[in-house]
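Batch manifest, entry 17 of 40.
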Amino acid sequence: MFRFAHISFLYLLALIPVLSVLLVLFLVWRKKALNRFGEFHLIHRLIPEFSTGRLIFKFVLLMIALAFLVLALADPQTGSKMEKYQRKGIDVMIALDVSNSMLAEDIRPSRLERAKQSISKLIDRLDGDRIGIIVFAGKAYNQLPITTDYGAAKMFLSAINTNIVPVQGTAIADAIDMATGAFGQSTHNKAIIVISDGEDHQGDVLEKTEVAAKKGIVFYAVGMGIPEGGPIPIYNGDTRTGYKKDRDGSTIITRLDESLLQRIASVGKGMYVRANNSEEGWRKVFDDLNKIEKSELESRQFSDYEDRFQYFIGVTLLFLIFELFVFDKKNQWFSSFKPF
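Output type: structure tokens
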């Protein structure tokens, strides 16, 4: 098992492309500056010992050293011991709607982002329970197989967006069917949390819910949005460029459709709540989940991890030492080798 103890340090790798762009800009600027003094080949004769190739080579060595230094700061670790242990918990599958209507901002910062924030808080409250995530729009996909690795669950959760499912729609029936099958043959208590704005549902949703309920699965339905609804924003990167419009050029307003979600909760012998800008609705779901009787679960996980950052520090030092022996200017002693 391999992991990074401090994964946030990996964001520092973004410095490499930034510094590379700055180097290119510097080389362009320097060439223009030299051209103001005369022909480039004449200037080159005046400073024959200067080598652009050496400068670039030294830069590449430094960037490799930087990359390994960042990896060392992130503290790579390998699992050295696997242990089997017993824990009590339930199985929870989350079916999360990622259709475009979930981008509406009638709930801040948006329906989808608020749902992800609440799921993250749910993960923080789990203790011994297993969790899995299914995303759906026009089709359903298993985003995270059921697991007790809460760190992995948060990592997969952070990657969810509306582009993850290419087909638009709201295939709740497919998501429920997939979530039911994801539990496997386990006999302990199970719950499915359906998170959606309820619009444009497809398939035999209630029939799938009834089949799952007969297997002892409890359903929670969370409505994202408000009945008044809101427009669906269009973004270019981080910049909002407008709102989705229909064929007549009118702005599309997406509204929360609670009727189907309420029936899912009723058939599934669970609870329906409406999410809003407070956490009151989600709190009811959290509290009710805690009331479900927990069963003994057997799990395996790595109990000991060994740090491996020292190897990356060693490689960093090697590249830095190598860079010191590459001179900015041509050296007569090395000229016979002509590496550049």
